Amino acid sequence: NAGVTQTPKFQVLKTGQSMTLQCAQDMNHNSMYWYRQDPGMGLRLIYYSASEGTTDKGEVPNGYNVSRLNKREFSLRLESAAPSQTSVYFCASSIRRANYGYTFGSGTRLTVV
Amino acid sequence: DQQVKQNSPSLSVQEGRISILNCDYTNSMFDYFLWYKKYPAEGPTFLISISSIKDKNEDGRFTVFLNKSAKHLSLHIVPSQPGDSAVYFCAASAGAHSGAGSYQLTFGKGTKLSVIP
Fold it and tell me: How far is B80 from chain A (nearest CA, A)?
């Protein structure tokens, strides 16, 4: 099925460990996004990539880095995980026009202990 | 400061009745509004949208109403079905004014709808 694929689906990290969340889309979308969802907080934008070769900070970028590897792939890296980064992470993509909304992946549930 | 507000964390409705989910926004630059639906353990899925140049958009059982002067929008589901039970997120975009044309979305906290058979 066409869409947004996120890996892994679940991950447990120890404080201070690093990891990379992977995201790939096969819809030829130009823009890609990383959101986190916390209980009672809705979805908050971490980083986005308007087009291949560009990335920008969102609302909550601290503690994260991103790489837009090519048009299809957009990864999110936690260099030194902290318990406050325990969350569900969603990757999304869009064609660049607000009309179509976003297509989201199924999420990565990350626990930092 | 929350730019998109969904003040009702939850809503219960009988099957066959109308569900009305509300959303308020504060940023007058928002010019496009969307509703997403989310089931547990899945990503949000796009449901319906409306441009600020319209006051109503309908798609089957789902209708979104926009009141720009009140900075308020609502999603009506008629008739409600048990499969509609999910968390609904309101989102807004200042697409024409965003830097780099990325059309970032600002989300509300969501309303959990339960449709009782």
Answer: 23
Query: Which residues are within 8 A (CB) of B5 and not within 5 positions of it... i.e. 6 or more apart?
Result: B23, B24, B25, B26, B108, B109
Q: What is the largest CA-CA distance in chain A?
A: 41
Q: What is the dihedral of CA B91, B29, A33, A92, to 10 degrees?
A: 30
Q: Which residue of A has its CA nearest to B109?
A: A42
Suggest the residue from B35, B104, B107, B112 to mutate for an interface test with chain A (most A CBs closer than 10 A): B104
- B69: contact with A, CB 8 A cutoff: no
DSSP B97: T
- C-alpha distance from residue A63 to each of A39, A66, A68, A80, A92 (Å): 19, 11, 17, 7, 20
Kindly give the confidence (pLDDT) of every residue in chain A, 113 residues in length, as a single tens digit, with 9 standing for 90 and above.
679 999 999 999 999 999 999 999 999 999 999 999 998 888 999 999 988 989 999 999 999 999 998 999 999 999 999 999 999 999 999 887 666 689 999 999 999 99
Question: Considering CB atoms only, which of A4, A40, A48 is closest to B102?
Answer: A48
Between chains, do B43 and A90 touch, taking CB under 8 Å as contact? yes
Any bridge partners for residue A35, and if so which? A45, A90
Q: Return all residues near A72 (Cβ < 8 A) that are at least 6 apart.
A: A24, A25, A26
Return the residue in A37, A88, A106 with the most chain B beta carbons within 10 A, the one to mutate for interface testing.
Answer: A37
**Bridging pattern class, strands A31-38 and A42-49:** antiparallel
